[in-house]
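Journal club prep, shared notes

We agreed each person brings one worked example of a sequence with its structure written out as tokens. Mine is Lipoprotein. I'm keeping it raw so we can talk through how to read the token line rather than staring at a rendered picture. Sequence first:
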Amino acid sequence: MPSRTFLIPLFVALAAILLACQPIPQPFRPDGKPVYRATPGPRTLLVVDPIVDSPSGFHARLAEALQKREIPAVSSGEVANRYHVRGRIVAAPPTRPDSELVIVWTLFDGQGQEVVTRDSRYLVDGVGWVTAEGNELEKVARRAAYEIDSLIGGGEAPARAEDYEIVVTDVAGAPGDGDRALAHAMTLHLRRLGLTVVDSAAAESMKVAADVTVAPFRKGYERVQIVWRLNDENGRELGVVRQDNVLPAGTLDGAWGDIAFAAAEGGAEGIADLIRTAAAGNSGQ
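Then the structure, token by token:
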């Protein structure tokens, strides 16, 4: 599989995808990202039932996320002889960052017969989930839509990004505490995206590494570039995520703090897309 490149400024994301002609993502958020499709199945209309104990409006956001994947979905009303998807929360997150949310998704056919069930785990900001503030509901809805897409695909389940082990190996070249802070933040964001991140590399692990360069830009400013690389278990490069920004000189000489968290969020979105591409390619083999 040819390598892919994403160009993502630290705070304004634009992607240049070299593998094929794909839609250009919109700034930083993943709404415009490529769609990775499961085998076509019952896609005429899907009814999203209300999800017990979820924040108000979550099932409507899920329907919207499914529509963005070109799946006709509605979030209200009784529609006869149509497939339904129903979610049941079996582990609600406590109100703290990086809490685990577990939802059991069940797909029913037009006659109300259960077709398939899957347990899904999401690492979420507990406060954002409970209060429906920020974009936490949208993040979970996007990931759930991807999983439901595979549920309605029919036939053997395709390989999923979540099936791969990932390890963040090295971040090098950053001033201050940037190497450690970026590696930690990338690990957190990949887990929040539902990916399986391990603490030490195994033979089958995909590996994420980054190189950071800081250079003078103009008087009083520095140009910061971060290049994230994703390699498969054989060391073959699957793709690159590039980030670029200009900051006041010396900003990153000490603790990176929220800058590391914000930068890694954009990088993680690009890395997750590369892993999904690899999963989709392996499913087609």
